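Input sequence (137 aa), recorded before submission:
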Amino acid sequence: MATIPASLRRLVIQRANDRCEYCGIAQMGQVATFHVDHIVPVVAGGETTAENLALACVSCSLRKGARQALKDSETGEVVFIFNPRQQVWKEHFGWNDTQVVGLTAIGRATVQALALNRPMLLAIRAEEALLGRHPPP
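Predicted structure, token format:
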């Protein structure tokens, strides 16, 4: 595991507005500290740079792991997992109340691979909605 300097960790957290860059939940109210995740995994040559780091909740980080390529269940197309540094979330995903909807092959494959609509996440988003924190800005 690569060591991430404190200043770089702070930059990643601030840039993400303290939210998981995959599922959108806020760090506030969560027990587990979010991970600073290598988008391109270190084992695949990914560097510890601002351009290759994203803030991820523990569940999204663990589900992503070292995966880079995924299969879109709708088309069978093999695509890269959503990259928050190179792609815009709203171009690949949308909201249906508390559910994340994949709008593209990348979005659909990422929703499925990271289980972005797992029951616990839906419950967290419902609570965030009651607190005025969902949907994310």
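Checked by second reader. Residues 69 and 92 are 16 Å apart (CA to CA).
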